[in-house]
User: What shape does this take?
Amino acid sequence: MQIDPRIKSRPLYDPVVIRPKAKKHLFIGAGAELDALKASLPQDQCIRIDGGPDGLTAQFRAELEAVFETLPLASAVYVSGSEGFMWDIRNLALAAGLADEQVQMCEPTSKERRLFCTHCYEITEGVTHSPQTCSACGRLLLVRDHYSKLHGAYVGVQINAEDPADIPETEELV
Assistant: This one.
């Protein structure tokens, strides 16, 4: 599947740069990217939170909300992980009062996508191919490059609404 350059909502990830003037640096996620960034800073300026394999659980969300409340105004947040996980963290940080420019996201650690069904409004996780069957309503969805920052998900629309027997060839997402 080719990336359509006309699609403006697909997120782009700039290289993460340590903000030298930040009073606190918060690293969220797991991976070598964050270890390398953290190694260049004094330990008393760093907080590292490992999201673990289950993503943004209720307990992890509560822990993050508590940490965000204690951050000084001049803080920087660096996030690594799956795309959906990173956007969940970003949205949580913005809800806690951080500015968008305070949150930097690494390149996603996998090609898996989160898919938002435009028909039943449910989320399907771990999508790697298009079309994809919605985990809630069972419709066969075309995975679009349109991205919803609110849901941290790509938009899926039913691909065979006129003829449910018409099942197109599956393509791997890039």
In short: The two ends are 7 Å apart (CA to CA). The mean pLDDT is 86.
